[in-house]
Automatic annotation (TrEMBL):
<dbReference type="Pfam" id="PF13187">
    <property type="entry name" value="Fer4_9"/>
</dbReference>
<dbReference type="Pfam" id="PF12838">
    <property type="entry name" value="Fer4_7"/>
</dbReference>
<keyword id="KW-0408">Iron</keyword>
<feature type="domain" description="4Fe-4S ferredoxin-type">
    <location>
        <begin position="117"/>
        <end position="148"/>
    </location>
</feature>
<dbReference type="InterPro" id="IPR017900">
    <property type="entry name" value="4Fe4S_Fe_S_CS"/>
</dbReference>
<dbReference type="InterPro" id="IPR050157">
    <property type="entry name" value="PSI_iron-sulfur_center"/>
</dbReference>
<dbReference type="GO" id="GO:0046872">
    <property type="term" value="F:metal ion binding"/>
</dbReference>
<keyword id="KW-0411">Iron-sulfur</keyword>
<dbReference type="InterPro" id="IPR017896">
    <property type="entry name" value="4Fe4S_Fe-S-bd"/>
</dbReference>
<feature type="region of interest" description="Disordered">
    <location>
        <begin position="31"/>
        <end position="50"/>
    </location>
</feature>
<keyword id="KW-0004">4Fe-4S</keyword>
<feature type="domain" description="4Fe-4S ferredoxin-type">
    <location>
        <begin position="190"/>
        <end position="218"/>
    </location>
</feature>
<keyword id="KW-0479">Metal-binding</keyword>
<feature type="domain" description="4Fe-4S ferredoxin-type">
    <location>
        <begin position="76"/>
        <end position="109"/>
    </location>
</feature>
<protein>
    <submittedName>
        <fullName>4Fe-4S dicluster domain protein</fullName>
    </submittedName>
</protein>
<dbReference type="GO" id="GO:0051539">
    <property type="term" value="F:4 iron, 4 sulfur cluster binding"/>
</dbReference>
Length: 218
């Protein structure tokens, strides 16, 4: 056998061997790859909760809670007696918008099916405007011009909350300094007292620096 035939036979045997073992090699390679390659991660599902759309109630849908009285609220200055005022007030809100200090606010009366203007002088004091814009804005006569000063209530001191009771001295006189009517607030020692001429406007309450406030309008 010459050299040329020797190489031909050797190459033929190699090709036969490769062909016979090709299938086995491919399957073995696939097995190795499948072991080394991690399985695909599961698809993430959208777990975010869909927020429920907020429903806003109309004023006439809001029911008032008559079982619990939260505030000592009053009618606006110049209001007629309760029965007549509730009849004549249309709930237009003109007096509320006319107040330069935003003292008045609407309260929905379910039985009347309308908003009635109210005020809470323990929360926001009436400034006793000289021209009474709230009264002048009323077109139905539910609010009438005042003869003299209004009367919303009577200031009462809670001396245990007063700064003067803590210091034992006449440290604070904000209530007297803020009162728009002279002579209503007087001091007996370092303890304030309030005369019957008090209008209950609440300006002394707003001026009181303590918390809880040492003055309440009742």
């Amino acid at each position: 056998m010459n050299r040329k035939d020797f190489f031909k036979k050797g190459l033929a045997r190699m090709l036969d061997f490769a062909q016979e073992n090709a299938t086995e090699l491919v399957s073995g390679f696939q097995e190795i790859v499948s072991k080394e390659t991690p399985p695909p991660a599961p698809k993430k599902t959208n777990t975010k909760k869909v927020k429920k759309q907020t429903e806003f109630l109309l004023p006439e849908q809001i029911k008032s809670n008559r079982k619990r009285k939260i505030r000592n609220v009053q009618f606006p200055p110049g209001a007629l007696d309760e029965t007549e005022f509730l009849k004549k007030c249309t709930g237009c809100g003109d007096c509320i918008y006319a107040c330069p200090y935003s003292v008045l606010f609407p309260v929905f009366e379910e039985n009347l099916e309308k908003h009635i203007p109210r005020m809470d002088v323990n929360l926001n004091a009436c400034m006793l405007c000289k021209d009474w814009p709230c009264i002048n804005s009323c077109k139905t006569g539910a609010l009438i011009p005042l003869e003299g000063a209004p009367k919303f209530g009577q200031a009462k001191g809670i001396f245990e909350y007063c700064i003067n009771s803590k210091t034992g001295e006449s440290t604070c006189s904000n209530c007297r300094d803020s009162c728009p009517i002279e002579g209503v607030v007087n001091f007996q020692g370092n303890k304030p007292s309030f005369s019957k001429n008090c209008t209950g406007c609440g300006q002394c309450v707003s001026a009181c620096p303590t918390f809880p406030r040492a003055i309440r309008i009742k």
